[in-house]
DUF2207 domain-containing protein (Aeromicrobium yanjiei), 333 residues
Amino acid sequence: MLRPLLRVLALAATVGLLVVPVLASSQAPQQDIDPRSGLITDFRGDYVLSADGTLAAKETVTTETREGQPGVARSWDLRDPFDSHVRLVPENIAVEVDGRSQPVELQWQQGRRVRVAQIADAVTAGTHTYTVRYTVDGVLSSSDADSGTSREPRTPSVLRWDVVPRGWDVEIKRSTAHLTLPAGTESVRCATGRDPDTTCDITGTGSDRITITTGALPARTPVTLRAGLPVEAPGRVTAPWPVQLDRALGRSVLDLAALLVAAFALGGIAYALDRRSRHAAPHVILTVLAWVSLIALLAIGILAHPPVTAYLLPVAGCAVGGAGLLTRRPAVR
């Protein structure tokens, strides 16, 4: 009677460990803007897009800092606002403060959805310049996946990008963004905030070099560019589930499939040992191999930041299959 109960408890615990992080991530509130935050007097973005869909970005901000002001941070939302299955993951993040290289502390928020770079702790009052460099793969989408208006000409690929990102939590007095593209644009427009009816100043339409300028922007207000390009859209970084599930399932279908195979395999081994243990002691070598594999998989999941709870699936497989091993009494000789 105890074996079925333990199997049910193991399944319930597995479901809970997979679901709770997802609920916690989806309900995590966005951090409020610190009223002590300073001011970005000038934002300059320099973006170079390759034909393979890789964007190399350099963001330079000039700030006015007051005494007691908190440190500066830059955040990236990995979810593409125009396609919930696409992941825009920043890589190769490097920071300079006043021309000097600065160590970067990377953190996660909202599970695995928002990447945060803590650029600098509180600095002396005055004017400071921060430069952030990073790359993002798969920023080009196909025109079939784009939700632009029917008035825009159809192009093989479309670039939608926040040339002034939402990830700066301070007011911006003025902004300038320069883009170098792999080919001349066939259509260009931009919007301030998420309202498509707002506009900004664009120069270079029809060429491979675009410049966008704005005046003052409230904190967390993006300036979004949409450019139609005559190049084919390459592959993108995607997952078949929404970004809220990344905390539980990760981002790789192959990794998840491997974990499921491992769960069934280890569960089968544990079940076989359980059946054998009713008549004789389980084979020591098989038991050791099963536990070593289990611990290795669990360690990989724990060392991820934050941990991916799908790595607990092999644990569940062993617990469900080998429930009897936990309750087996030593044979009386």
